[in-house]
Design goal:
The complex is a heterodimer of chains A (about 475) and B (about 90). Chain A has about 475 residues and is an alpha/beta fold. Chain A is built from 14 helices and 18 strands. Chain B has one domain: Non-ribosomal Peptide Synthetase Peptidyl Carrier Protein, Chain A (Orthogonal Bundle), CATH 1.10.1200.10. In chain B, helix 1 packs across helix 3 and helix 1 packs across helix 4. Classes of the chains: A alpha/beta (about 475), B mainly alpha (about 90).
């Protein structure tokens, strides 16, 4: 069987890329190893309930009609109506450090007034940041490698404000320890602080349904339980003469079932390390650093009969940190309960209200430490980490202890198993490939390791990489 | 296709890409980008639709020929002369 394009992974970047390729008239199939689609942003059923595997919200909220914003651009390119997502906006969120809070919502006025209240001496510097940041948003992925922490420290006198701005953005998409790169910081800043959070009514499932329907309507083929065993590459060194990249050309893939599929182009959302692991070794020379991402997470989900509002909490997400300095790194133990994210899907203005309360707490976790546990200890430590998570939630948001009617937890090992990301690195490799190029002709990277994060970012990633390639093809055909 | 039909064909493609734009009052001689919100990716989509619907190839260096409706008629006229108009937008 011969395809114009094969896509590894039916996550949001794969679906976005797939829809575009099908629109361009390509014969395209998405190959998904699991029985469900969605990738990092999927869903699962447990105890008669359906849970989203990612955070509850998408960032980059924009109302209907704002077509130049990232959400509007995506919907337009995928030809999806804004109403199909049935988005409900957040109430408010906050960054909470000891004794200090910064609230924000989808209206920048709130954050502005919070900065004026909590950091009156920094108002002018904050306004300058707002004015300057759009100039650093690089959708073509160029990245100066400058440190966001250093850049912010040069702009603000109070180091606490630097930490408080970094905290939610690291949790929302920081693939490296302690810091973010400056250009991705600008993109995340827009996503979280300028445009903000919204939740699709019914969670991620209906969004995925819309995308899959669109993909099939455009003529695309979605193959589930179709894990890729290896990527077939041919040729190599002789192509290297006139271009720096060119360690061979992709020919197709071999599935875990042994079936061979030929393709002109392969788009992989598996991650940088994971994609190269599928390629023959002799084609990896000069591929640059091949290191799995350093950061993974522990998550606890708690269902309560009462909604968070009845328990005294009407916000949507709290990014908390228990010390003046925010320590974003792989912890020395199983989890680091000093900082994290507390969030609930309940307090969004969605058209279908939820009937039960759900609290989700995310903490930094060490893959190596979890992997070292024997099965019995693993179960016990999961329960203990969940207690730490709920204690943090009680301190920084609201208390559900003793009120749980259902609980689930997942660790870096769970994440690794379901996403295929080595080390459970949700945000992938610390070293991004913004142009999606791998060095092997015809093999492009999309998704997390291309550099955009979140639901909107992942879709944008797939769309952008395909568009760029189609533009190049249009240019070279002439 | 007649020149009028080419204008209809282009408007129909734009209506597919940007369903909420009002296209009734588009001027022939003013750049499309100045009248409605179109970015370079939208032009990629217009070219894609021209290829899908009419089998017409527009190389990238000719995209600027499509900047106005007049330009579209002039550039696409010969290419679309023997093609049938196909309307696809939901409008």
């Amino acid at each position: 069987m011969r395809y114009d394009a094969l896509i590894i992974g039916a996550g949001l970047s794969g679906l976005g890329a797939g829809i575009r390729l099908a629109q361009f008239g390509k014969r395209v199939a998405i190959l998904e190893k699991h029985t469900l689609w969605g990738g990092l942003n999927s869903f699962y059923k447990l105890g008669g309930r359906r849970f989203d595997s990612g955070l509850h919200a998408l960032t980059n909220y924009a109302p209907r009609g704002e077509r130049t914003k990232p959400l509007g651009r995506i919907l337009r390119q995928l030809r999806i109506d804004h109403d199909e997502l049935a988005l409900g906006e957040q109430s408010w969120s906050a960054v909470r450090f000891p004794g200090i809070e910064l609230r924000f919502s989808n209206d920048l006025a709130l954050l502005r007034s919070e900065i004026a209240r909590a950091f009156p001496g920094e108002v002018a510097a904050f306004e300058r940041l707002l004015a300057d940041l759009p100039g650093y948003e690089r959708l073509d992925g160029t990245n100066s490698g400058r440190s966001a922490r250093a850049e912010l420290s040069g702009r603000f006198r109070d180091p606490l404000l630097v930490e408080m701005l970094l905290c939610p953005l690291c949790y929302y998409g920081g693939a490296r320890e302690h810091d973010l790169d400056w250009e991705p910081f600008a993109i995340l800043f827009r996503a979280v602080f300028l445009e903000g959070f919204a939740r699709p009514s019914g969670g991620i499932r209906p969004v995925l349904d819309v995308l899959v329907k669109r993909f099939k309507a455009e003529g695309g083929e979605l193959r589930l339980r179709a894990g890729v065993a290896r990527i077939v590459v041919e040729g190599g060194a002789e192509r290297g003469a006139d271009r720096e990249l060119g360690r061979g050309r992709v020919r197709g893939v071999v599935l875990e079932s042994g079936e061979e599929l030929e393709a002109e182009h392969v788009y992989s959302s598996a991650g940088w390390v994971e994609t190269l692991a599928l390629c023959p070794r002799e084609h990896l020379r000069g591929a640059g650093p091949i290191e799995p991402g350093p950061l993974s997470f522990f998550e606890s989900l708690t269902v309560t009969a009462e909604e968070p509002r009845a328990l005294g909490f009407d916000g949507t997400a709290i990014f908390f940190n228990d010390s003046p300095r925010f320590d974003y790194r792989s912890p020395d133990g199983l989890v680091d309960p000093r900082s994290g994210v507390i969030c609930t899907p309940n307090n969004y203005a969605t058209s279908e209200p939820l009937t039960e309360g759900l609290l989700r707490v995310t903490l930094l976790a060490s893959h190596a430490h979890w992997r070292a546990l024997d099965p019995e200890r693993y179960v016990a430590e999961k329960a203990r980490a969940a207690e730490l998570a709920l204690a943090a939630a009680a301190r920084f948001a609201f208390d559900v202890r003793g009120k749980a009617i259902f609980q689930d937890t997942f660790t870096p090992l769970t994440i690794e198993r379901f996403t295929g990301h080595v080390g459970g690195a949700v945000y992938g490799s610390a070293h991004k490939r913004p142009d999606g190029k791998t060095g092997i002709d015809g093999l492009s990277l999309i998704g997390t390791d291309q550099g955009f994060v979140g639901i909107v970012g992942a879709l944008l990633s797939g769309i952008t990489v395909v568009n760029r390639r189609e533009l190049e093809a249009a240019g070279s055909a002439s | 296709m007649t020149n009028d039909e080419i204008v209809l064909a282009i408007k129909d493609i734009i209506a597919t890409i940007a369903p909420d734009e009002d296209l009734a009052h588009l001027k022939m001689d003013v750049r499309l980008r100045e009248q409605i919100e179109l970015d370079s990716m939208d032009f990629l989509d217009i070219v894609m639709e021209l290829r899908k619907r009419y089998g017409v190839q527009v190389p990238e260096q000719d995209y600027m020929e499509l900047a106005t409706l007049d330009g579209c008629v002039k550039y696409l006229g010969p290419k679309l002369a023997d093609k049938q108009l196909k309307l696809a937008s939901r409008a």
